Description:
Layout: H1 2-26, H2 31-50, E1 57-60, E2 75-78, H3 85-92, E3 97-102, H4 111-118, E4 121-123, H5 131-143, E5 147-150, H6 168-176, E6 180-186, H7 188-191, E7 205-208, H8 220-244
Parallel strand pairs: 1-7, 2-5, 2-6, 3-4, 3-5
Antiparallel strand pairs: 6-7
Helix pairs in contact: 1-2, 1-4, 2-3
Amino acid sequence: MVLLRTLAGLLWSAFCCSYALLTILLRPRSAKYVLSGIGSRLWSRNMLRIIGNKAASVSFESEEAKFENWPATAIFIANHASQLDINASAATIPHPIVYLAKASIRKVPVLGLLNERVGTVFIDRSNPTAAKKSVDRLLTTLNRGISVIVYPEGTRTKNGELNSFKKGAFHLAAKSNTPIIPLHIHGTRKALPKGGFLLRKNPVHVRFGTPIAPPVEESAQALQSFVEAGEQAVQRMKEWHNAHVETPD
């Protein structure tokens, strides 16, 4: 079953990626459909079904965290334990979303072109002078009604513990005056851990936190406090999952 599940996941991902690229090339203005119709509903929800979920289980930290109280667009931040986090995020966030990605993704055949066309925000951590271009691209994406999701740990965790958050997403949020919405994903590491290849059956749970407004003051201290607030929010929801969800992460 594990091999069949993995083969199904690979074939389904290849089909959806090809379909998305063909759609965006033929219909350049179809980014929202590609992100929501193909990326979220067609690809991600079925990827979760492949690992045994009729749908991802969703909960909210507060009334303000519920979908109907969200701002029109936002920067989402989440823990990162598995490649399946992309599917868990896309399947549960009821907005078209793109990702904050390393600039090197642009050079990847097919994937780079697809990300470029749908509005992915690229960031070059080795080139500080590119920061303004990243902010400008983010604003363009947000103005199209498309939100952005970031995994601020920068890499997938090996043991389930949160790594320290990097400042990139928070810097962009502060510069563009965009609220942060934190979330925690539980269960994907068991289904596909870092370094793993085989897809295993496991329930997935996503908990959304209260939106966090960017700081009014522009200072290093204010930005650091913003980062800490986001990291603490995700850690708090991680602890909630450990206390309330019986299935392993």
